[in-house]
Amino acid sequence: MKIALYIRHEGLMRLLFDLWEDHDVRIDEAWTGYDGMKPPVLQGDEDIIVSTIPHMELNWLQSKKPVIAYVTDPIHPTARPGFDYWQKQANFIAIGAENCYPPEFTVPVSNYIPYAVKNYSIYNGKINKVLVVNRKPDHRLEEITRGAFGEAYDVARLLGDMPYTIAHEFNRAKFKQMYADYKVLFYFSNSPFTIVMYEAMTVGMPIVAYNHCIGWWTSVIEKYFNNKFIEPEAIRLALLRELAKPSQAVVYDIPSFEDIKLKWNNLFKEVVSDT
User: Fold this and answer.
1) If you ran DSSP here, which 8-state letter would residue 98 be given?
2) What is the CATH number of the domain that holds 148?
């Protein structure tokens, strides 16, 4: 099928392009990623329209084609008018990524389709260091530690003298391999969930998670991770325990890439047949 994708998040775009690899996916504007990714742009003959964060196109979009909103984040107030309109239309459906937001921050969804990734190596843990994967590591960690207990910690202060690496690898293949090679991931985010956590879980990488984010919406962290803490000393001890262990992959209770791909394919068939 031909799919029109409205998107502003490059990581999510890559994830969806993989999951929708059986389809002809186009995006709403010319885009060149940091490694030269150039997806095709809209041509107007698409069969399905998919809206992703920030969903602003729902404020002006008019179409009789099936429209899917993939709701991964709280709905911004400026996008509310568009959702109010489209929720009344028969050719609209909202799909969530994870069930973690209070009703007042989101919209009713028909189903949940979580993230899934492919083409990652199997965990080996040969580099006995902590890996940090975050676009703004110090800013984000200071933000969530300040929110959790009132004091800001950057990465260096929290991890102290233990060996760690912050992933600043722009080569996509080398970046993905870091999940397999490093001993343990220190995971933190101001969002309830990110693509990073699914990447690491797919590889089987041990994870020590910071159990706080904006809004205290930590249900996804609590669902997937046993090693989750707030106090800096507890984080350090958990990471040191992982560094001292023999390397062994962890099996996480997540759907496979093929299962999630099938969910999307079934949804596309369903919405087309209903119009």
Assistant:
1) -
2) 3.40.50
Same-domain check for residues 202 and 267: no
The pLDDT tens digits for 190-225 are 999 999 999 999 999 999 999 999 889 999 999 999
Adjacent-strand bridge partners of 229: 210
Pairing of the two strands 67-71 and 48-51: parallel
* 121 lies in some domain: no
CB 95 within 8 A of CB 110: yes
Express each pLDDT in 101-141 by its tens digit: 999 999 999 999 999 999 999 999 999 999 999 989 999 99
Task: Identify each DSSP E strand in the chain by its residue range.
Answer: 2-6, 24-27, 48-51, 67-71, 92-96, 111-112, 127-132, 164-166, 182-187, 207-210, 228-229
pLDDT given for residue 171 in this prediction? 83
In whole angstroms, give the CA distance from residue 15 to residue 22: 13
d(C-alpha 183, C-alpha 131), whole Å: 7
Round to whole Å and give the CA distance between 211 and 224. Answer: 11
